[in-house]
């Protein structure tokens, strides 16, 4: 019988840890809901001790998600463990995930501890975590560069202390597939009580081997794989969920393993994560990249027309990717709109549906042809607009030309007060951003700004992405419009709103 592999998604923790990807509570919950629909077994919602904002995010996910286990990360220290438990204690299925580094490099330079001290701290942490929560995962950080004998010893001891899952991270993405497989084999053969725990792997992608290493480990009895949507994460990222799941799905004959993942949700979840984090998916990214199912060469197209199996090993529909044909027009009704959205994986409550239908009608008036990408862009706007903002855009006006200084006037609403100011700039966007800075009094550094066409044609919708930095933290704002100046202003305001909300929460 095919053995089940548990999928542990850490998009909201390791994924969110990469610079610029910061997600607020509503965004975390939105992604968690999609992960739940996708039937992810475990959602690691965050690292609660790291900030009050992260605590709130984890707690909110724990209170709202019922089907998936909710894990919270904590170092192997008392206050982290208590904080992690406080954040997830309302979860239907909580899991404390505690870790300590076990490699000589980390123990000597980072922890400044002897192996014996690390061993004792790990046992203490697992016992404490177990006193709160029946499910405890223990990770030996930098396991792939640790002394295997020390790993065997620490895993044996933490299992005796109550750990139900032991995780083997390739923290710096250093391992090679064969070597990583052998490490897991060694653990299975040399940890006497290993059968009392589930063995998990957590691979980073510094050498582009995260997925290969994770899949290799399955040969040696690994039951849980840790991964992220679109492979986002620290540095070069983590093993990508969609690649792992689709490899197991497409090559069942080879792996003879299965997951519970509903693959139809892969594409919508990937899109949502990309939009909310601001991390654009490379066009040739396996499974979810724009070109992953596009056949360009004539010889390939001819083959696919005769039989898709010539060049297609997976069907786009399996991951929830519909064809990009014209979907709706300005005469389309609410029911057609609702059913098309649901095919794309968006189940909306009545309020959101009404709101998005009105926006769809406005868009259909501006654009003759409304494509799948247009609907997705619109949905991301609707989802993001649900966030309670501090400043809202009321109006803007720009005067620009090749012989005059670009000047912008902006009106914002803050708690029912209208605030207005004007400013000049090096270009219309600079002028608009300067006017917003004057109104809000914010002095954040603009660290990134770009516009890209999301859809096709002269009336294409443009997505503006703005990243600002404040006190070492990045805040990304995004917006979509057929008017790129409007998209830029709204994106900039979103980034500022996120920054202000974070400041208020951390005050
Ligand atoms: O990469 C890593 O080692 C981690 C652990 C905390 C599991 O993210
Ligand atoms: Zn990691």
> What percent strand?
15-25%
CATH class of the largest domain: Alpha Beta
Tally of strands: 16
Question: How far is the N terminus from the C terminus?
Answer: 54 Å
> Which cofactor or ligand species appear?
3-methyl-2-oxobutanoic acid, zinc ion
**Cα-atom radius of gyration:** 24 Å
Question: Care to describe what's here?
Answer:
This protein is α/β, with parallel strands linked by helices. It has three domains: 3-277, Alpha-Beta Barrel (TIM Barrel); 294-386, no CATH class; 392-506, Double Stranded RNA Binding Domain (2-Layer Sandwich), CATH 3.30.160. 43% of the residues lie in helices and 20% in strands. It has 18 helices and 16 strands. The chain has helices at residues 11-15, 25-37, 52-64, 78-88, 104-111, 115-132, 148-161, 177-190, 210-217, 241-250, 252-255, 266-277, 298-306, 334-343, 350-366, 372-385, 428-440, 484-506; strands at residues 3-4, 6-9, 42-46, 69-75, 94-101, 136-141, 165-170, 198-203, 224-227, 257-258, 392-399, 407-414, 417-424, 445-453, 462-470, 473-481. Strands 2-3-4-5-6-7-8-9 form an eight-stranded parallel β-barrel, surrounded by eight helices. A three-stranded antiparallel β-sheet has the order 11-12-13. Strands 14-15-16 form a three-stranded antiparallel β-sheet. Helix 3 (52-64) links the parallel strand 3 and strand 4. Helix 8 (177-190) packs parallel to helix 9 (210-217) and helix 15 (350-366) packs across helix 16. The longest helix has 23 residues, at 484-506. It is globular and about 75 Å long. The mean pLDDT is 90. The site of 3-methyl-2-oxobutanoic acid has 9 residues, from strand 6 and strand 7.
């Amino acid at each position: 019988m095919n053995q089940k592999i548990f999928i542990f998604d850490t998009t909201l923790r390791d994924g969110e840890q990469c610079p610029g990807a910061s997600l607020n509570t509503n965004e975390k919950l939105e992604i968690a809901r999609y992960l739940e629909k996708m039937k992810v077994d475990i959602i690691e919602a965050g690292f609660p001790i790291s900030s009050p904002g992260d605590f709130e995010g984890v707690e909110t996910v724990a209170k709202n998600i019922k089907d998936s286990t909710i894990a919270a990360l904590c170092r192997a220290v008392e206050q982290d463990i208590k904080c992690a438990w406080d954040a997830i204690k309302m979860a239907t299925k909580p899991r404390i995930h505690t870790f300590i580094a076990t490699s000589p490099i980390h123990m000597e330079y980072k922890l400044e501890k002897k192996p014996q001290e690390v061993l004792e701290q790990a046992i203490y942490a697992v016992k404490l975590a177990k006193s709160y929560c029946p499910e405890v995962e223990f990770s030996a950080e930098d396991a792939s560069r640790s002394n295997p004998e020390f790993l065997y010893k620490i895993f044996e001891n933490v299992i005796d202390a109550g750990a139900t899952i032991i995780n083997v991270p390739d923290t710096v993405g250093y391992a090679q597939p064969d070597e990583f497989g052998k490490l897991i084999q060694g653990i299975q053969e040399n940890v006497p009580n290993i059968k009392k725990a589930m063995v998990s792997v957590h691979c980073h992608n510094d050498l582009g081997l995260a997925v290969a290493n994770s899949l290799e480990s399955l040969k040696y009895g690994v039951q849980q794989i840790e991964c992220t949507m679109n492979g986002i994460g620290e540095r070069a990222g983590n093993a990508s969920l969609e690649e792992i799941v689709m490899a197991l799905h497409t090559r069942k004959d080879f792996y003879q393993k299965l997951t519970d993942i509903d693959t139809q949700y892969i594409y919508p979840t990937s899109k949502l994560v990309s939009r909310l984090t601001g991390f654009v998916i490379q066009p040739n990214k396996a499974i979810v990249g724009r070109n992953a199912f596009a056949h360009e060469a004539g010889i390939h197209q001819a083959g696919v027309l005769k039989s898709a199996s010539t060049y297609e090993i997976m069907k786009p529909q399996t991951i929830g990717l519909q064809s990009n044909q014209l979907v709706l027009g300005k005469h389309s009704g609410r029911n057609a709109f609702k059913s098309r959205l649901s095919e794309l994986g968006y189940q909306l409550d009545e309020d959101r549906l009404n709101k998005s239908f009105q926006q769809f009608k406005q868009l259909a008036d501006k654009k003759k042809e409304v494509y799948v990408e247009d609907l997705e862009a619109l949905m991301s706007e609707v989802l993001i607009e649900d966030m309670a903002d501090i400043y809202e855009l009321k109006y803007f006006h720009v005067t620009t030309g090749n012989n005059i200084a670009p000047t912008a006037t902006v009106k914002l609403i803050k708690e029912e007060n209208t605030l207005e100011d004007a400013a000049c700039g090096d270009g219309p966007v600079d002028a608009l951003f300067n006017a917003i800075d004057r109104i809000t009094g914010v002095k954040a550094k603009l660290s990134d700004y770009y516009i890209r066409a999301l859809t096709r044609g002269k009336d294409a919708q443009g997505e503006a992405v703005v990243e600002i930095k404040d006190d070492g933290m990045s805040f990304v704002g995004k917006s979509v419009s057929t008017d790129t100046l409007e998209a830029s202003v709204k994106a900039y305001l979103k980034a500022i709103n996120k920054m202000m909300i974070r400041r208020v929460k951390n005050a």
